[in-house]
Design brief:
Layout lengths: L2 E5 L2 E4 L10 E6 L2 E7 L2 E7 L3 H13 L1 H15 L1
Antiparallel strand pairs: 1-2, 2-3, 3-4, 4-5
Length: about 80
């Protein structure tokens, strides 16, 4: 589960077992986790996070979307 980015105590990463799904990133920290689709940037689900943490996660993904997508495709090619 390679780390792509870390901000605000949140770790943004991928899991190798779900690369067959459309492009997305997982975020863990602050006592919870979330999954965010990348195209378009949209929250799939979150668990155990406060609303402001979820908003911060989505905003961070929006700000780094191009970088995350590039890393998604690189990661997917290594595990597929």
């Amino acid at each position: 589960m390679p780390k792509v980015l870390e901000k605000y105590g949140i770790r943004f990463h991928f899991y190798g077992y779900d690369v067959q799904e459309r492009a997305h990133i997982h975020a863990s920290g602050q006592g919870g986790e979330a999954k965010v689709w990348l195209e378009p940037v949209e929250l799939d689900h979150s668990q155990g996070l406060k609303a402001d943490d979820v908003a911060r996660i989505v905003r961070t993904v929006e700000e780094h979307q191009a970088e995350i997508l590039e890393k998604w495709h690189d990661f997917k090619s290594t595990v597929s």
